[in-house]
Amino acid sequence: MNKAPLTHLGDMPVDVFLRDYWQKKPVVIRNALPDFEPLLSADELAGLSCEEEVESRLIIGEREGQDWQLLHGPFDDDTFSSLPEDRWTLLVQAVDHWLPEAADFLDQFRFIPRWRMDDLMISYAVNGGGVGAHYDNYDVFLVQAEGVRRWEVGGLFDSRSALKPNLPVKIVADWQPEEVYDLNPGDILYLPPCVGHNGIAVGDDCVTYSVGFRAPSVQEILRDFTDYVGERLLPEQRYADQNLPLQANSAEITADAVQRLQTLLEEVVSNKENLAQWFGKAMTEPKYAEMDLAPEEEMDADTLLEWLEQGAILRRTDSSRFAWTEVGDGGVTLFADGAAFPCPPQSAAFVKALCHEREFDLQQLQDGLAESSNQAILQILYNQGSLYLENIDF
Question: Among residues 153, 265, 267, 354, which one has the fewest Cβ atoms lying within 10 Å of its Cβ?
Fold first, then answer.
């Protein structure tokens, strides 16, 4: 089901949140999701963590005579039956990839650009369970789903901050909380990047949903973008020095030489079209590149339309990421799961609708499907696994 973006977090309009808090400072929003209902039970979450393809962890807190422990899934019944009575946490990553309701849940946070979103992690903790004091390099909404979690919030940390030594999990040393909050179901704690925090379950059956965002490092951006541009340059595009003056010392790399190099690089990396194309591909790359989304059998556009006419629903694959950008001729480029598709002006409205919503029936698509270019878009997206059909019986 398509879910509209939130207009308010509790009593706070989202534009006020974006103006005053986003990437600026933490905030606790009480009753931010007043009608919130958990997406799955603790048993169902544990069941997900037993699946081979699902990324999951168990973190067992320190206790007398025993340091922190980190276990990676998949798990089984024996793992859970052997856990201590308290101080452990189960974390399941990218639940939105496996549960359509979780993907729909994330759509509520589309007041932040959807291509900025990473995934929904769900954690289950017994009394005293947590992952220790730490920081993240990205923004996160921590939604309390069930039970109570006590959040300690501290200062700013980075890669130079001291960590406790010889542990399998990264825990900041000398943790000194500045604020402490108890979150109840429906409450949200928002944290900007690098803010220290420590969540501890108060009682059993504590469930927290972490809505995390993508934020590529400058190191990643430079490395990946220069690789992208480099693949498109010709061998004869080289450093040049016309009108070279006579140098007093031939071993000197002069300021003029460095300036020529800087100008050359600026001309290459300042091409906005290249930058937009790379960025769209990069920000829609699947979280798990090894996942094969393609259907067992490809389908042509006519067959897709026949299924829609028979009542099928066309839905975006839960792990898929879509975005678009305008190009100079009135057309758009569609980005889907790391691939770019130039689309003509007559397809612009259709592409924008595909990126905005998660599922469609024939009535929603009808006007756009008169264009053959739009039929081709659906066929490509279906055959690469970015879209799939519901309510059909092959």
Answer: 267
